[in-house]
Amino acid sequence: MAIDSQKVEQLVGKLFGEISAGYSGALVLIGDALGYYKELAKGPLTSSELAEKTKTTERYAREWLSAQAAADYLQYDPAQKKFSISPEQDMIFNNEDSPAYLMGGFYAVSAAYSAVPKLIDAFKTGKGVPWGEQHEHIFCATAKFFRPTYLSQLLQSWIPALEGGIEEKLRKGAKVADVGCGFGTSTVILAKEFPNSHFYGFDAHSPSIEKARDAARQAGLKNVTFEVATAKNYPANDYDLVAMFDCLHDMGDPVGAAAHARKVLNKDGSVIIVEPFAHDHLEQNLNPIGRIYYSASTMFCTPSSLSQEVALGLGAQAGEARMRDVVTKGGFTRFRRAAESPFNIVYEARV
Fold first, then answer.
1. Strand, coil or helix: what is 28?
2. Strands 239-245 and 198-203: what pairing?
3. In 3D, which of 70, 65, 69 has the Cα closest to residue 54?
4. Which residues, 6 or more positions from 218, have their beta carbon under 8 angstroms from its beta carbon?
């Protein structure tokens, strides 16, 4: 077969850029840990000034700054020999409330590379990798990555899109189960907005539940309870709303999880299921968003599911048809797409 040299050059150029980005991502984690981005947000600095303010070593700071400027993650003024962070860069690296905040993505990539040896073995044996056995970065990465979306979409779009007067019930006082709550980010956001309602956060990963409890204490919330439980054994409590944010596809038995949600839901309640945006067919998902989600699914979501009972292995790009099949097999008669964004699809299920 003849080799098209132009295609080789194009691919090499593409991959060289991606290798470069991989190195830059590692430096992002260092900068975040050392407070470099936050210090630069206060004003332009030389490498010596940054090192002094952060109590680090100038020679390391200088090389780090140079690499970040070469990546266009920072600005450099050759006349002043100072580095700075633009307002747009600040939104991405520093502002945790910004919809553009992407620090969680870098921590997720770190966890992915750490998981490679386990995944190589899993590929050979077909066994799963439990969520709790992944690198610790994936837990904070999940909270950091999803929080900006929850802040910008949950109250503004997703809850209002639900039928049956759910938002009004939450205002007056309702019972809500947040299943697979992780660090409790979504639970805390909801509890702050709806103080008359009580929110129960459940997750099978006990260290995450401890983080969630800390978050609730720091927020001074009294209408939140966090407990360690799976999606099939959290207690029945006649819930008005059961929420599953970015987690149903990670479960070994999502049909069982849907069936349990139906069991614990009151007759007028709803289930809100938020999933990564996906079309039903592979060829429709061959794009930058699908690339990220398929990759994360390979490293985290599918291994988690395959480590549990049933081991259905939905994956993060299951699509609406598969999700409908799972939920209706769980006993729900009504299922619809309630809302969507470029990155998520919001489904609602009712009895």
1. helix
2. unpaired
3. 65
4. none
Quote helix, strand, coil % in the chain, to nearest 5. Answer: 55, 15, 30
DSSP letters along 131-198, please? Answer: GGGS-THHHHHHHHHHHHHIIIIIIIIITTT-STTHHHHHHH--EEEEET-TTTHHHHHHHHH-TTSE
Q: What's the mean pLDDT when you consider all of the chain?
A: 97
State both tokens at 331: 């006993």
Q: What is the pTM of this model?
A: 0.94
| Chain centroid offset of residue 181 CA | 11
With beta carbons less than 8 A apart as the criterion, state whether 54 and 32 touch. no
Cα Rg of the chain (Å, integer): 22
| Listed residue (211, 46, 221, 219) closest to 136, CA to CA | 211
Give the CB-side neighbour count of residue 119, counting CA atoms within 13 A.
19
Unique residue bearing structure tokens 């969680």: 104
- 137-178 residue pLDDT tens: 999 999 999 999 999 999 999 999 999 999 999 999 999 999
Sign of the C-alpha dihedral computed for residues 25, 186, 290 and 131 taken in this order = positive
3-class SS letters over 297-348: HHHHHHHHHHCCCCCCCCCCCCHHHHHHHHHHHCCCCEEEEEEECCCEEEEE
Residue 16 DSSP SS3:
helix
Q: Which amino acid is at 191?
A: A
How many angstroms separate the Cα of 259 from the Cα of each of 52, 70, 97, 170, 193?
58, 52, 35, 23, 28
Contacts of 305 (CB under 8 A, 6+ apart): 128, 249, 250, 251, 252, 311, 312, 313, 314, 315
Cα atoms found within 13 Å of the Cα of residue 90, Cβ hemisphere only: 11
pLDDT in tens, 267-326: 999 999 999 999 999 999 999 999 999 999 999 999 999 999 999 999 999 999 999 999
Secondary element (H or E) of residue 270: strand 265-276
Whole-angstrom Cα distance, residue 293 to residue 221?
33
